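Archive maintenance. Older records in this collection stored only the sequence; we are now back-filling the structure field for every entry so that each record is complete. The fields below show one back-filled record exactly as it appears after the update. Entries are processed alphabetically, and DUF3662 and FHA domain-containing protein is next in the queue.

ARCHIVE ENTRY
Title: DUF3662 and FHA domain-containing protein
Organism field: Herbiconiux moechotypicola
Length field: 243
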Amino acid sequence: MGILDNFEKGLERAVNGAFAKTFRSGLQPVEISAALKRELDTKAAVVSRERILVPNSFQVLLAPSDYQRMTAIGPALVDDLNQIVVQHAAQQGFQFAGGVTVDLVESPGLTTGVVQIDSANVQGQVSWMPVLDIAGTRHPLTKSRTVVGRGSDADITIDDTGTSRKHVEIIWDGQRAQARDLGSTNGSTLDGQPFQRANLEPDSVIKIGRTDIVFRIVPQSSASRGGRPASPSAPAAPGGFWR
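Back-filled structure field:
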C-alpha cells in the first residue's frame, strides 16, 4: 500500500468518526457490506496475470451498541456478509487463499456508527456443516436424524402450539438431507408446498405451525489467522443432494 493509499484510508476513518460522533444513528448492515468490499479492493495483491489474491478471513469490529444490534439479527446476517464477500470477489476476478470466514467482534474503543475491518490470509481446510436456523437460533445437525417439535422429548423443542410434539424429522447422511413429516396434526410445508417426505436443498424453508425452519450448509474453517495461502480459490460447497 502506498503513501496516498494510507492517507486516503486515514482520511476515511476520520470522516466516518466525525459523522458517527455527530449523528450517532447506528450502523446499518449495508455499511458493513460496503466496508468488506472496500477491504477486498484495498488488499488485492497481484500475484500473477491470472491471479489476484485477497484476504479470506475478516473480523468486523463494531462499537458495543452496533454489535448488539447486528448480533440480534441472528446468524443469517453473517451468512449474507460471507456471500457478499464471495460474490464481490467473483465479480472483480479476485481469488482466495482458502475458505472465507466473517466474524463480528465487539470493540469497546469504537464510536457508534463506525466499522473497522481486520483481514488476513489464512491457511486451513474448510468443512461444511448442516444447520437449522429457527427464530434466530442456529442448531447444528450433529445426528443422522433430528426431530423438531413442541414436545420436550424432541431433539429441538420449539414454543409453537400449532405444532405436534414430534412434528418433523430431518435426516442427514453426511452429504444429503431429507425432511419427513411425522404424522403431525397440522401438516408441514417445504417452500410453500405440503409434503410428507422431501429432499432438502440449501436454504430450503420448512414451515410447521407458525415456525419457519431454514436448512443451510455453512462453512466451518479450521484455519488459524496469519497462515500461508493453501490453495488458489475457496472450496465449493458439497453437492450430491437427493433429486
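Update note: DSSP finds four helices and 17 strands in the chain. The longest strand covers residues 211-221.
Entry marked complete.
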